[in-house]
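tool=predict chain=A
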Amino acid sequence: MKRMITPAICILILFLCELNLYAGKNLEFSKEFALFTSKNASGYFKPLLTSIEQSLNSNRFTCADYEETWRIGLDISVMGMLIPSSQNNYDAELPQLYGDTSVAQTGELRDGVYYRNKKGSTLQPTIYGGASTPVFSAPQKQNGVSEFYKSSGFAEGNNITFMPGLPVLQLVVGIPTRTELRFRFLTLGVAGESMTYYAILLNQRLDHWFDIQNILHNHAIAVNLGFHSLQRDAGIDVTSFSAGLHGSGEILENFKYYAALQYETISGSITAYRENYDASDVINSPYEEIRLHGDQPLKISVESFTKFRVLGGLSYKLGFAEFHGDIAYASQPIFTFGICFNFVTF
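tool=predict ok
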């Protein structure tokens, strides 16, 4: 099967470039990101991982009126996502003993207001957010513990309000059981090792099973299921699932609308070591995870803000081509446009 590029893979490549990964079997974080704890890294990148998850589960289907024929085609689509302000910040964890005034006096200047003895967490920008706010700390005594509890800085955001997706190309196969299968596949080198992406997507028409065509007239209902896998032997282990219902109806000849309700999720981890780790670089870190276990890998939990999407779109068939576009409401609203070429039908 030919290599097929998807928006999610393109976004993931941008993600890996953002981390400034270096060659070698293991992934490595650059110095800029080496001072993240695993929890803070997960919070910082969660909106970007949401974009990846939404990209994986876009361009899944168009109209639900799958016919009793064999069909082979290619679908080419582009997409983009609006980034809401609610995903511009996350609660960054602070060092364990911040708030214990016998160890350190801390303070944060935010929007002209000074907050003393910060503890627990602080609001900081995600990768899509803006400027970060440091938390200053003055250790109270040199007793072998408090000397570590110095000021903490956080990574800046990139002020991103729209995330584009690059073209998705997928093989489409229709089966006489009124079933449609879609396949995606890609392998590429990431930091000296091969990363593999594949997806198996199923659309199955339902209304003909219940003999309700007379009620639905020119409408159809189908179920959709999807599985995605992103794997790299060292560093990337990500899977995504989706399931939902979609239906369509005819407005004019060859001009139709479709709508859907879809559940989707993503899970897994991205693991990388700190670049050129040297204990002397982190010996004074206020975070125990970094100070005591800095030579251990940093693990980003792959999570998404999106669980459900509601979608509506239009489709127009012209010869062997189907033009389609839809808008979806999700945690990051999605716009998708594409064309499906049906090369073989019998």
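Confidence is low (pLDDT under 50) at residues 1-6, 17-23. The first helix runs from residue 7 to 18.
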